Amino acid sequence: MNIIIITPMEIEREKxxxxxxxxxxxxHKYQVFASGIGRESMAKTIMxxxxxxxxxxxxxxxxxxKEKELPLNLxxxxxxxxxxxxxxxxxGGLFENGEPIQVDAKLNLPKLSSLTSDKxxxxxxxxxxxxxxxxxxxxxxxxxxxxxxxxIISDFLPHETEIDFFEHVKEIDFLPAIKAIENMN
Length: 185
Description:
Blueprint: E1 2-7, H1 10-21, E2 29-34, H2 39-47, E3 54-64, E4 79-88, E5 101-102, E6 111-117, E7 131-133, H3 136-142, E8 148-157, H4 165-168, H5 175-182
């Protein structure tokens, strides 16, 4: 299968490529593109991609909750699949056309809901285990039935201490996410 992976940031692209290179005898052919952060960047990238059998959005995401209180499979660096995406406006109001999009799971990963916002969310009163990002809703709106989203848990909201994000995520390995793609039916 010819699979294209889109990552919002270059660091995610590099981690995806490193993980792909660790897979011997891969079942799939991969191409990896960095789109840039945000809904508009995601849309522009999707419109200009070459043909593929499957498109995967792969990237970091914050999750609402304290790591020590969440299940182990929702810990730091763990991959999850987004099966419901919602869109919130800049001031936190649900857009009229922002009705949640729900899809069937494709992988054997935890399935979570995602909230796409126009700005980085630092603190929140959202439901625990909600994933927060800036791209999922656009991807979900434009994707084909076979396409899907994998997010890697990178931080927990609200932040209890200030983090240097790029230092914080250095140790995260994307290999479990790539293995999940390799094992899909």
